[in-house]
Design goal:
The chain is of the alpha+beta class and 125 residues long. Helices cover 22% and strands 42% of the residues.
């Protein structure tokens, strides 16, 4: 009797683990980034990437900006310096020096707005 219950319990446990794994796999791949524009630093070390992030029907589009190493691909992750509601139109990125960037076109509804990352300073207007 206990052997049958153990087998049933192990089977249910394995089923739940498998379902959690499948759910995690599909949920983690729901977002997609579409690059709108980018600008490379004068010394060629960094790139500021403006992109649209879409995480499916349950969320709206968002404007996001990341600082990445020049030549690297943009990861499928949220922006590391700026996040705001809506489409990323009318944003401009101007490098003032190797470690200073001016970002224009900023919206009022922002969720993240970093002033520096990896030694690069960001100003907004």
């Amino acid at each position: 009797m206990w052997t049958v219950l153990k087998i049933i319990g192990i089977s249910i446990g394995l089923f739940l683990i498998a379902m959690f794994g499948v759910g995690y796999y599909f949920a983690s791949g729901m977002c997609a980034n579409s690059v709108v524009t980018s600008a490379t630093s004068p010394n060629g070390k960094w790139e500021v990437v403006v992109f649209e992030r879409n995480c499916g029907a349950t969320t709206g589009f968002s404007s996001q900006i990341s600082l990445i190493e020049a030549g690297e691909e943009l990861d499928d992750e949220a922006g590391n310096i700026y996040i705001a509601e809506g489409y990323p139109k009318d944003y401009t990125v101007n490098w003032k020096s190797d470690d200073s960037v001016k970002i224009s076109g900023i919206k009022n509804y922002n969720f993240k707005k970093e002033s520096q990352l990896n030694g690069v300073q960001f100003s907004y207007e």
